[in-house]
Write a structure and sequence with these properties.
4-stranded mixed beta sheet, binds FE2/S2 (inorganic) cluster, alpha+beta, about 20% strand, Glutaredoxin
Length: about 110
């Protein structure tokens, strides 16, 4: 059984721009996901402990891009590609959630 210390689920649902419902994809979640994967590629020593997985809508569409982290059940909201280095170093590597990006609805 594989048991990661931390597993990031990154919403990739994309609804059309200008639609009634917002979406993480329309706000750049693909780039967030891509940068997370790139960061892990550069840190192969993390591969057995952490994972980053694309997922569908997490239900917090107004506040995206959203990331849900297990096992903590920690929610990130409004994540941008520029936030990725901090997320990797602070949370994935050191285990300290980035409070400034915490979803306020949690
Ligand atoms: S579209 Fe990302 S949480 Fe719904």
């Amino acid at each position: 059984m594989i048991a990661y210390k931390r597993h990031f689920f990154v919403c990739q649902t994309h609804r059309p721009d200008g639609g009634e419902e917002p979406s993480c994809g329309a706000r750049g979640s693909a780039e967030v996901y891509s940068r997370l994967l790139d960061a892990l590629d550069r840190r192969p020593e993390l591969a057995k402990d952490v994972a980053v997985t694309a997922c569908g809508c997490l239900g917090m569409c107004l506040d995206g891009p959203m990331i849900l982290v297990y096992p903590e059940g920690f929610w990130y909201a409004g994540v941008t590609p520029d936030d990725v280095p901090e997320l990797v170093e602070q949370h994935l590597v050191q285990g300290n959630p980035v409070e400034r990006l915490r979803w306020k609805g949690a």
